[in-house]
Amino acid sequence: xxxxxxxxxxxxxxxxxxxxxxxxxVASRLLKDGASVFVQHHRPHDEALPWGGDDxxxxxxxxxxxxxxxxxxxxxxxxxxxxxxxxxxxxRAATLTGTLDILVCNQAKSGDDGxxxxxTAQRLSAMWDVNTRATLLMTSAFAxxxxxxxxxxxxxxxxxxxxxxAPTGRVVWMTSGQGDGPMPGEVAYAASxxxxxxxxxxxxxxxxxxxxxxNTINPGPVNTGYLDADSTDRDLGPxxxxxxxxxxxxFGEPADPANLIAWxxxxxxxxxxxxxxxxxxxxxxx
Length: 286
Known about the structure:
This protein is α/β, with parallel strands linked by helices and about 290 residues long. About 35% of the residues lie in helices and about 10% in strands. The chain starts with 9 loop residues before the first strand and ends in an 8-residue tail after the last strand.
């Protein structure tokens, strides 16, 4: 019998609008592991970038073909720069099967960034709204589904919790390589991702009161199309020279972080909580 570690569970994966993307790889892997998966997409963002966007109906059809018997696939377009969108998206995703067990916040706004010398309030807000604010608001809405309530916690408060029998939910955030070295020309993006890494421990501790486990992934350089010659937005010469000196001589592929995420949200990954995990094949060491 095929082992389906996520059978009976439902996941929301954001940022699933391209087959080359991490979100598509995560959704595919969770479906193969038996989960029902609801995906969010925002094709206009990708269409404005060199690598473009895919046909959403065809993409969702391919995901549906991967689903195991009894599992469901749902999808919705959503612009997560809208402050009302995160809560509405989580609520909609929960209607797929009547429950929501896993949240993977993979959405990311990139492009139209700059250095500190040409930074603007608009650029900072645009990255913050999608990469950081939406992630925090979706996590809050997910927690509410699992019994979370507004509270008047004061700085330094500690919960009087009882030991957990088992996790009740899983949340995965995505950060970037801002802690591994400089990211010239990506100040707004790096700042928005650094905020998530920085607040992981605090939010993870609060979510554990509900039995929800949160971890954050730094996937390192993953080739989602922006490192291909026909769809790149940068000079690949120096990057290819550096790649050849790395341990495995390649960039990450979307399946690399997807494999880690699938393990983290399974029963086997339950002992890892509140961590910022780097999955980069040693690229940051060179």
